[in-house]
Amino acid sequence: MLPINNPIVVQHLLKDQIDAISPISDEEFAYILSHFVVKKLKKHAFLVQQGDHVKYDYFVMKGCLKAYVADEDTGKEFIYQFAVEDWWVTDREAYFKKSAATINVDCLEDCEVLGITLENREKLGAEMWKYEHFLSVKANWGYNSLQKRLQMMIMGNAKKRYESFIQQYPHLYNRIPKSFIASYLGVSRETLSRLYAL
After folding, report:
1. Would strands 88-89 and 65-70 be described as parallel, antiparallel, or unpaired?
2. Taking phi first (over 0 means left), then psi (-120 to 50 degrees means alpha), and beta for anything else, what does residue 106 get?
3. Does residue 108 contact residue 60 with C-beta atoms inside 8 Å?
4. What is d(CA 50, CA 100) in angstroms, rounded to the nearest whole number?
5. Where are the alpha helices (DSSP H) in 61-157?
6. pTM metric for this prediction
């Protein structure tokens, strides 16, 4: 991974996301960005692999990734998150507990991400109340999204899950293989085929 030497090149996505919650100056953003590193990956490469130490939380600048657990006996994947431009992804438990990853995150396309260590995340939070506020709001949004997803998986039938996915992520539908969408929704590929044929 490479440190960021030219923050102007990658300013737009991350700064826009922070500005939407806690407006910051260009100088403040340059300081924030100096705590990140850049990582470029090819399609099918692992960003996080089960069993590995998780050092970074990643902000996606380019590309599409999937986060999943794999059944050790069957090898079947259970996808619980997709991540595209302007989204964050990592094994959060391993990142915060400094433990081995229990999930995999791999690239569905060529990707470019910005990574921040837990130490730098906490350092920025302690130094800049605007960044700490940004992290707090983003965490709350993440919890809300997870709650909605769990409710849908528990209470929603396959059709409702599919319709909710299309409504919430219309930009992902033609970007992600249908077998992966089926895994994310907890349905078979055949069930998904029947639903989008309607």
Report:
1. unpaired
2. beta
3. no
4. 7
5. 92-97, 118-127, 129-155
6. 0.88
Task: Say if CB 42 and CB 107 are below 8 A apart.
Answer: yes
* Distance separating alpha carbons of residues 188 and 182, to the nearest angstrom: 6
Alpha carbon distance 196, 166 (integer Å):
10
Number of domains in the chain: 1
pLDDT in tens, 118-162: 999 999 999 999 999 999 999 999 888 888 888 888 877 888 888
Beta strands in 19-129 (DSSP E): 37-41, 46-48, 56-62, 65-70, 77-83, 88-89, 104-107, 111-117
Establish if 160 belongs to a structural domain: no
Nearest to 85 by CA among 141, 12, 20, 136: 12
Q: Which residue has the tokens 């909710």?
A: 164
CA distance 95 to 47: 13
Within-domain flag for 143: no
Residues 6+ apart with CB under 8 A from 23: 130
Read off the pLDDT of residues 45-82 as tens digits, 9 standing for 90 and up: 999 999 999 999 999 999 999 999 988 788 788 998 99
Residue 52 lies in a domain: yes
Going by C-beta distance under 8 Å and a sequence separation of 6 or more, which residues neighbour residue 88? 57, 58, 59, 60, 138
- Residue 78 sits in a domain of what CATH number? 2.60.120.10
Residue 55 belongs to a domain: yes
Q: Which range marks the domain in which residue 117 is found?
A: 2-130
The radius of gyration of the chain from alpha carbons, rounded to an integer in Å, stands at: 18
SS3 label, residue 156? coil
